[in-house]
Amino acid sequence: MRPEAAGSASPPSLRHTLSQPWRTAAARLGAAWLLLLASFAGDWLAMARQWWDISTYNHILLVPPIVGWLVWQRWPSLQLLTPRAWAPGLVLLFGAAFLWLLGAVSGLDLARQAGVVGMAGACVPLMLGVRVTAGVAFPLFYLAFLIPAGEELVPALQMITADITIGLTHLSGIPARIDGVFIDTPAGLFEVAEACSGVKFLIAMTAFGALTANVCFLGLVRRAILLLACIVVPILANGVRAWGTIYAAQFFGVEAAAGFDHIVYGWIFFALVLAIVIACAWRFFDRPVNAPVIDASAIQGSRRLARLEEAGGSARIAMMGFAAIVAGIHLWAAAAGGLSAPLPLRIALPEVNGWRRVDYNPSIWWEPRAQGADHRLLGRYRNAEGQVVDVFVALYASQDEGKEAGGFGQGALVPASPWSWQSPVAAPDGGKGERLLGNGEVVRVAMTWYRLGGGLSGSNARLKLAVMADRLMFRRRPTMMLILSAEDTASVPAVKSIARFRSSTGPLGAWMDGIGRVR
């Protein structure tokens, strides 16, 4: 061969480095993923918009390349394994698809998104088999961080941050009084708002901690300790950050302290805490630099995996079962999603013994949100003792995307309004109570109940479960949301006014049914 011919030889392509079983299995997996992407494009696009538009989830944009890198780390060892279709993986696929169905029929985006991510992961054991799945177990687990979840933690994190902040404020000698998430100091009134809850910091640190624990540690105990630190440290650090803002405001003013806090929290604080956690963990890293990430020989020789592999089934069964599940779940969702309960043409607030209807004129306008409701009512009642209660009712023929009684931004607290969440309040009959503060001046207590069928609860989770059960069983029942609210004053406590009104309505479920004329 001539020298110039030798010099022009190109390196072998990836296609030629793959064995025939790998090429066939990769084609199966790629076809399955393409079908999932096309069939559930709306869910993937909705997730991508959240990753891009919502700062809490911006870090998720790094998860796909991280997963790719994790697989690439394992690729030399994975090539030593032989992929083969594993039909029992259809059980995992159906479980993920059913989770998506529950979200689709109830309007619960978190379930839909968890379902599509789960289906993508379930394709790996289905198309590549249990041994390859064992080799990529952690990358598959890490796919869970694609799901934009965590906003549900905001109220709890607000309260925790407020408790840490007031404790440090008192320790630093600053006189302060706390009321829910509001802290009153000589420099002014501070609110531990949703943006100050630290949720975005916590979610990102948890994803980082899981990655670092797997890459840098071999021992399970050390991994668990690092992951725990990545949960606890951000929460504590966020409390310190909030206290620092209050402390600085006593000397430099509220505006200067708040402006500095936004710069520090956005660009410096996260990196600083991250560096501290890594610095503390560095000396305990126990994975050798050049050690293989997985042990292919141990996976190949595993008797447990061999027993699982025996129930394999053919690639044809895997592909046909995959297509049947995807098609079937879409048909089920379409049939259940078209259900709508019959409703009266009009509803009205009833007479209540000992109370009379009066004009609705709150000191700060308050109107709950019930987007997509078929009927809405808002009125005010007053009794002879001067107690005043506001009543809001929303009636839905169905619960779907864009018309969810318990959805984000629905109910007593409307985003971008004069009202801020202050603290939880105990409510009777399983209701959800919350204290709101309007323009930093007016306190309002609101108690919420949901009614579906014979159930009565203030829990959004219970409402979603009831909606799921109705849709899966093709039942057509309306959903009602009731909010009883009152402004809180020293002379007329809101909780007592609402309790007095509640005692006058009789059984709350039956009273709600009478308003909606559903029984």
Write the layout of secondary structure elements.
Elements lengths: L2 H5 L6 H4 L2 H20 L1 H13 L9 H16 L10 H18 L2 H20 L1 H6 L1 H6 L11 H18 L5 E3 L2 E4 L2 E4 L7 H18 L3 H33 L1 H29 L13 H6 L1 H7 L5 H23 L17 E4 L16 E9 L4 E9 L22 E7 L6 E7 L3 E11 L2 E3 L2 H13 L6 E10 L5 H12 L2 H9 L3
Helix pairs in contact: 3-7, 6-7, 6-16, 6-17, 10-12, 11-12, 12-13
List keywords for this structure.
3 domains; 519 residues; eight-stranded antiparallel sheet; transmembrane helix; Exosortase; membrane; three-stranded antiparallel sheet; transmembrane; hydrolase; alpha+beta; disordered N terminus; single chain
Q: Radius of gyration, rounded?
A: 28 Å
What is the H/E order?
Answer: HHHHHHHHHHEEEHHHHHHEEEEEEEHEHH
Shape category: flat
Helix content: 40-55%
Strand content: 5-15%
Largest sheet: 8 strands, antiparallel
- Catalogue the unreliable spans: 1-14
Question: How many structural units, i.e. domains?
Answer: 3
Explain the overall architecture.
This protein has 519 residues and is α+β, with helices and mostly antiparallel strands. It has three domains: 23-148 and 302-337, no CATH class; 151-282, no CATH class; 355-516. It has 19 helices and eleven strands. It has helices at 3-7, 14-17, 20-39, 41-53, 63-78, 89-106, 109-128, 130-135, 137-142, 154-171, 199-216, 220-252, 254-282, 296-301, 303-309, 315-337, 460-472, 494-505, 508-516, and strands at 177-179, 182-185, 188-191, 355-358, 375-383, 388-396, 419-425, 432-438, 442-452, 455-457, 479-488. Strands 4, 5, 6, 7, 8, 9, 10 and 11 form an eight-stranded antiparallel β-sheet that branches. Strands 1-2-3 form a three-stranded antiparallel β-sheet, with helices on one face. Helix 6 runs antiparallel to helix 7, helix 6 runs parallel beside helix 16 and helix 10 crosses helix 12 (220-252). The longest helix is centred in the middle third of the chain and has 33 residues, at 220-252. The relative contact order is 0.10. The model is unreliable at 1-14 (pLDDT under 50). Its main location: membrane. InterPro entries: EpsH-like (IPR013426), Exo/Archaeosortase_dom (IPR026392), Exosortase (IPR019127), Exosortase-1 (IPR017540), Methanolan_biosynth_EpsI (IPR014263). It is a multi-pass membrane protein.
